Q: What sequence folds into this?
């Protein structure tokens, strides 16, 4: 009988010592969302044929090579207060430098920290195929809506 009580107590203690699984289901660091519009009718979304999109000193983003799209979501540099992207359309390149302030926010033990970008600005750009740029939201805390509108 003592043997069964000991097994029950050990089993009970083993069950109590278990921890819940740490699975991150919350939002992580958002991407910068850019939406492309028709320059002539600025309320009309207009697809752009992207040859490539890449950041200076980094590889290109594979999902935006030789694709026609009306929006892109690109990551910003987490270690610096600026990121420069080159967006190529029909072999014509435009350079956009995004400047921002970074703010790290603790999400949870399983997710760790995420970075929010504030005070978004575009310091320099070349306007070869891009006609105009509008910053819709200077705070990037999610990637559900466009932060920047590009007119071409």
A:
């Amino acid at each position: 009988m003592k043997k069964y009580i000991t097994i029950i107590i050990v089993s009970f203690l083993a069950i109590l010592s278990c921890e819940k699984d740490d699975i991150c289901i919350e939002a992580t660091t958002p991407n910068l969302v850019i939406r492309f519009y028709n320059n002539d009718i600025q309320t009309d979304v207009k697809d752009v044929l992207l040859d490539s999109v890449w950041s200076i000193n980094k590889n290109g983003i594979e999902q935006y090579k030789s694709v026609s799209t009306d929006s892109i979501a690109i990551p910003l540099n987490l270690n610096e207060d600026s990121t420069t992207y080159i967006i190529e359309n029909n072999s014509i390149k435009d350079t956009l430098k995004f400047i921002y302030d970074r703010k790290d926010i603790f999400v949870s033990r399983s997710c760790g920290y995420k970075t929010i970008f504030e005070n978004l600005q575009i310091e320099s750009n070349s306007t070869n195929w891009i006609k105009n740029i509008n910053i819709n939201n200077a705070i990037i805390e999610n990637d559900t809506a466009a932060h920047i509108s590009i007119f071409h």
